UniProtKB/TrEMBL annotation:
<dbReference type="InterPro" id="IPR050123">
    <property type="entry name" value="Prok_molybdopt-oxidoreductase"/>
</dbReference>
<keyword id="KW-0479">Metal-binding</keyword>
<feature type="domain" description="4Fe-4S ferredoxin-type">
    <location>
        <begin position="179"/>
        <end position="207"/>
    </location>
</feature>
<dbReference type="Pfam" id="PF00384">
    <property type="entry name" value="Molybdopterin"/>
</dbReference>
<dbReference type="GO" id="GO:0046872">
    <property type="term" value="F:metal ion binding"/>
</dbReference>
<dbReference type="Pfam" id="PF01568">
    <property type="entry name" value="Molydop_binding"/>
</dbReference>
<comment type="similarity">
    <text>In the C-terminal section; belongs to the prokaryotic molybdopterin-containing oxidoreductase family.</text>
</comment>
<dbReference type="GO" id="GO:0016020">
    <property type="term" value="C:membrane"/>
</dbReference>
<keyword id="KW-0004">4Fe-4S</keyword>
<dbReference type="InterPro" id="IPR027467">
    <property type="entry name" value="MopterinOxRdtase_cofactor_BS"/>
</dbReference>
<dbReference type="Pfam" id="PF04879">
    <property type="entry name" value="Molybdop_Fe4S4"/>
</dbReference>
<dbReference type="GO" id="GO:0008863">
    <property type="term" value="F:formate dehydrogenase (NAD+) activity"/>
</dbReference>
<dbReference type="GO" id="GO:0051539">
    <property type="term" value="F:4 iron, 4 sulfur cluster binding"/>
</dbReference>
<dbReference type="InterPro" id="IPR054351">
    <property type="entry name" value="NADH_UbQ_OxRdtase_ferredoxin"/>
</dbReference>
<dbReference type="GO" id="GO:0022904">
    <property type="term" value="P:respiratory electron transport chain"/>
</dbReference>
<feature type="domain" description="4Fe-4S ferredoxin-type">
    <location>
        <begin position="135"/>
        <end position="166"/>
    </location>
</feature>
<protein>
    <submittedName>
        <fullName>Formate dehydrogenase subunit alpha</fullName>
    </submittedName>
</protein>
Length: 893
């Protein structure tokens, strides 16, 4: 992209080609009001506040392109008067409260102050009323200047199209497109409209218009909900969160956010927060001092090791916690206890991605960072619902589609993006491998493969070609239920695109053959030569938790040390042992489901559960509860008395992501800083401090006193993290791994030269399609798919404590109207769901988004019992539960 040179009041500036005069004026360091303008949006040119003179004419700077050698005149009494008149006209239609809070009250107030417009200019009567129906977005109609920024934000950034301008002339005002109250609209509370509103017409409860902001403390951190990794600025006063705003320079979110990171912070000061350690005495959990709790835990751990050796102890580390905390937990287990029994919720989530991507390409992460993948001209979104589960990513994928990229969605349900898809493939749950083979069959049959790439950089083509002969479209249609014509159409779109990218989620991994699914999906990228190009696109798992990538990177896994170095590898053990000054146990440890089985059989004698509500979120919950009951010692680090904490013998109260220091790794392998915005409540401390304290109670010292030390030590154990440090991240913001060199950038796009497999080639996988573990029958005739809804997060422990409950307060079962009629279920009425394993109580919602024979629910309200329904079937390679396929029956109300 070229540049142009522009003169601004005699100052020469260089701006990128395509820039506007407003960009040039700002590049010159001059202030120019622009009330209808936001850099995140297409310019509107409607408010006339940015009038300048260029080429002899008075023009709105925000919509006038900067041409080479343009001379822009900004200063001068005449231009100032024009701008002042334009803003005065706008302000005169507003009531006095628009300018009562002083210059810092709003962008408009600031502009008025700068232009010398006095508060008395705002004299209108108003009386158009407010809409305070929504917990997070409040509308004062009288302050609306119809600049349209909110409407454009909702359309161009969020992509929800929930807002419109209605009325005429001075009466024009923003309204939800559905007409009624804001709460009942399509708004998904990303906060974008509030963020861009220049007048205070749209505000959030913590920051009403005119409220003083000067005394707020601002802390930049990384969101602790999902794995997108949004950079957020937390505003606090008196140790309370006032608001959380998206950082406009956020490397991933670029000024966008979602209802969770932006608004769901009410949990932080919830009266339910745990503030003191608890110990079980005479069957009841009672508050005790830290010294007592630690002594009790240490005593119990010693007894467990004495009775069953180090392997009688296990820990589930937290993908909600920081890298440094996860690093410390696995070090504690390996060095202090002497076992590899440590795992994290990647097991339940994207462990098939780690296994599958490693087998296909060599490393357990996506092939490219999102910014590059997003440049694709064809998006294949598979078994992922980013509109709800990764809203900031979902919004960007939608914008890419609206700007011309082709879109294929593969999901049994009509998820948010499906409405915009060129082709929506709706496979029966559990039939992905056949679906992907069907697509690959067409790619091969129609010559839509990259022969040169396959020759130079891939292995396994002859075997795959032979296998794919058995997956012609007709047979695949019979297995998956996807019409052969749709399959061919999708394969042609993906096959003919120049830059095809794949994004996928749990609809691929949480299956009996999840790892095979990942590998069969990777086959498509390899056949097209669409991975390791160095130019982006590739294949990206939309990883779930804020730090599930990092928890695994740090070695909170039973078979690998930090940096995925196998515990079975003597050299890797030796390297870690040298850094840690203690031997590393040789035998790979237990995976989460194996831990529960060992507890039930009596061989596991102590389990430390850190930030995972296993009783609510692991499958076949009754058997999980039985495991905890059987285990002589259960320790739990929690924010709340979760179903799991309730069953523990010791509960340590801990800090949340808003209260701690460290780093997270997001879904596309980027390290970012996490900083405390407020202190934890009561006696709660960080997970980091708890691990240190428990080690000390056992007479051990884990070293690395601070989180920064822990990351530095990790870099000494793992060459690919050697270039990372807190100090560097403070300076640079986000740095992707691999990052071996402190002086060089991390590797955003992997495998430019060679894949990280032993022979440097990507491996095509010849895995046959095998049916799911659970199949419907006469007694359990429906297939239940479980997944996510936009307003709640996993166990819901955080999102159910605050305004999100008003956005989504009922645990729903989605089902097709035809099935509802057949089973006598009515919309909005209670329905019991029974599987071969358990029973849940939900409320029915009839929707055409569901295919006949399938029902869907989330698992955000543990009291409904959804995870008593799910089975013990798990991915044959990684033990990831088959959450996406459970045979059920319905019993109306
Ligand atoms: N609002 C919200 N956001 C979240 C979370 C949350 O709880 N709430 N959780 C976070 C976590 S931990 C994770 S892991 C991510 C998960 O993010 P996603 O993977 O996007 O979430 P899910 O809704 O579990 O599943 C995705 C889709 O898989 C589809 N699916 C089911 N079976 C199949 C199949 O056989 N084939 C295909 N092709 N598709 C299938 C489902 O219909 C569903 O729409 O979200 C993260 N973000
Ligand atoms: N039916 C069904 N079940 C599923 C899934 C599904 O699709 N369907 N998805 C699975 C997936 S992908 C995942 S990732 C799991 C998620 O399951 P979990 O990890 O159990 O769920 P979360 O609610 O994210 O967090 C667990 C607990 O951590 C606590 N917590 C939050 N922050 C911290 C912290 O910093 N430190 C500590 N110590 N605790 C903290 C919270 O209060 C919460 O109780 O659920 C799985 N369960
Ligand atoms: Mo997850």
């Amino acid at each position: 992209m070229g540049t142009v040179r522009v003169g601004v009041d005699g100052i020469a500036v260089t701006v990128p080609a395509g820039a506007t005069l407003l960009d040039a004026v700002r590049a010159a360091g001059l202030d120019l009001p622009a009330l209808c303008h936001d850099d995140r949006l297409t310019p509107a040119g409607s408010c006339r506040a940015c009038l300048v003179r260029a080429g002899g004419a008075v023009v709105a700077a925000c919509v006038t392109p900067a041409d080479e050698d343009t001379h822009v005149e900004v200063a001068g009494e005449e231009l100032l008067a024009l701008r002042r008149a334009a803003v005065e006209l706008t302000v005169s239609a507003l009531p006095p409260r628009a300018l009562e809070g002083g210059p810092e009250a709003s962008e408009l107030a600031r502009v008025c102050h700068a232009l010398g417009i006095v508060p008395e200019t705002a004299q209108a009567e108003g009386g158009r009323g407010r809409d305070d129906s929504h917990p997070y977005v409040h509308l004062d109609r009288d302050l609306c200047i119809a600049c349209g920024r909110c409407v454009r934000m909702c359309a161009e950034v969020q992509g929800t199209f929930a807002l419109t301008l209605t009325g005429r002339g001075a009466d024009t005002v923003v309204t939800p497109g559905t007409g009624g109250a804001w709460l009942d609209s399509d708004c998904v509370a990303c906060g974008g409209c509030v963020d861009t509103c220049p007048t205070g017409a749209l505000t959030e409860p913590g920051l009403p218009v005119g409220a003083p902001r000067g005394d707020l403390t601002r802390t930049r951190t990384t969101c602790g909900y999902c794995g997108v990794g949004c950079a957020l600025e937390v505003l606090t006063r008196d140790e309370q969160v006032t608001a959380v705003l998206p950082c406009h320079d956020g490397p991933v979110n670029r000024g966008h956010a979602c209802v969770k990171g932006r608004f769901a912070h009410g949990f932080v000061r919830s009266p339910d927060r745990l503030t003191r350690p608890l110990v079980r005495r005479r069957g009841r959990l009672e508050p005790v001092s830290w010294a007592e709790a630690l002594e009790f835990a240490a005593h119990g751990l010693r007894a467990a090791v004495a009775a069953g050796g180090p392997d009688a102890v296990a820990a589930i580390s937290s993908a909600r916690a920081t890298n440094e905390e996860n690093y410390l937990v696995q070090k504690f287990m390996r060095v202090v206890i002497g076992t590899n029994n440590v795992d994290n919720c990647s097991r339940l989530c994207h462990s098939p991605s780690a296994a599958g991507l490693t087998a296909s390409f060599g490393l357990p992460g996506g092939t490219d960072v999102f910014d590059e993948a997003e440049l694709a001209d064809c998006l294949l979104v598979v078994g992922a619902n980013p509109a709800e589960a990764h809203p900031v990513v979902g919004a960007r994928l939608l914008q890419r589609t609206l700007r011309g990229a082709r879109l294929i969605v593969a999901d049994p349900r009509t998820v948010g993006l499906a409405g915009y898809a060129d082709v929506h493939l709706r496979p029966r749950p559990g039939t992905n491998v056949a679906l992907f083979h069907g697509l690959a069959h067409v790619l091969l049959a129609e010559g839509l493969v990259d022969e040169d790439f396959l020759r130079r950089r891939a292995a396994g083509l002859p075997e795959l070609t032979a296998l794919l002969a058995g997956y012609p479209p007709d047979r695949v249609a019979a297995i998956t239920g996807v019409p052969a014509g749709d399959l061919v159409a999708a394969a042609r779109l993906y096959g003919r695109a120049e830059r095809p990218a794949i994004f996928y989620g749990l609809g691929v991994t949480e299956h009996l053959h999840g790892t095979d699914g990942v590998r069969a999906l990777a086959n498509l990228a390899i056949l097209r030569g669409a991975a390791g190009t160095g130019r982006g696109y590739g294949l990206s798992p939309l990883r779930g938790q804020n730090n599930v990538q990092g928890a695994s990177d740090m070695g909170a896994l039973p078979d690998v040390l930090p940096g995925y170095q196998p515990v079975a590898d003597a050299a890797a053990r030796e390297r870690a042992a040298r850094a840690w000054g203690a031997p590393v146990p040789e035998r790979p440890g237990l995976r989460i489901p194996e831990m529960f089985a060992a507890a039930r059989s009596g061989t596991l004698r102590a389990l430390w559960v850190i930030g995972e509500d296993v009783c609510a979120t692991d499958p076949d919950a009754d058997r999980v509860a039985a495991a905890l009951t059987a285990c002589p010692l259960v320790l739990c680090n929690e924010l709340f008395l979760s179903d799991t904490a309730r069953r523990a013998d010791v509960v340590f109260p801990v800090a949340s992501w808003l209260e701690k220091d460290g780093t997270f790794v997001n879904f596309d392998r980027r390290f970012q800083r996490v900083r405390p915005a407020l202190p934890p409540p009561g006696e709660a401390v960080t997970d980091f401090a708890v691990v240190h304290a428990l080690a000390a109670a056992l007479g051990a010292d884990l070293g690395c006193r601070t989180p920064a030390d822990a990351l530095a030590e990790c870099g000494r154990v793992v060459p690919m993290f050697a270039g990372l440090s807190h100090e560097r991240l403070d300076r640079e913001g986000a740095v992707p791994w691999p990052c071996p060199d402190p002086g060089a950038p991390g590797e955003a796009a992997l495998y430019r030269e060679r894949f990280a497999t032993p022979d440097g080639r990507a491996r095509l996988a010849s895995v046959p399609y095998l049916p799911p573990g659970e199949e419907p029958d006469d007694r359990y005739p429906l297939v239940l798919v479980t997944g996510r809804r936009w307003a709640h997060y996993n166990s819901g422990s955080m999102t159910r404590r605050g305004g999100n409950l008003r956005l989504d307060g009922v645990d729903l079962l989605d089902l097709n109207p035809g099935d509802a009629a057949r089973y006598g279920v009515r919309d909005g009425e209670p329905v019991a769901v029974e599987s071969r394993h358990g029973r849940a109580e939900l409320t029915a919602r009839l929707t055409g988004q569901m295919a006949p024979g399938q029902v869907f629910c989330a698992f955000h309200f543990p009291s409904s019992g959804v995870n008593t329904l799910t089975s013990g079937h798990a991915d044959t390679v990684t033990s990831c539960p088959e959450y996406k396929v459970t045979a059920v029956r319905l019993i109306p109300g």
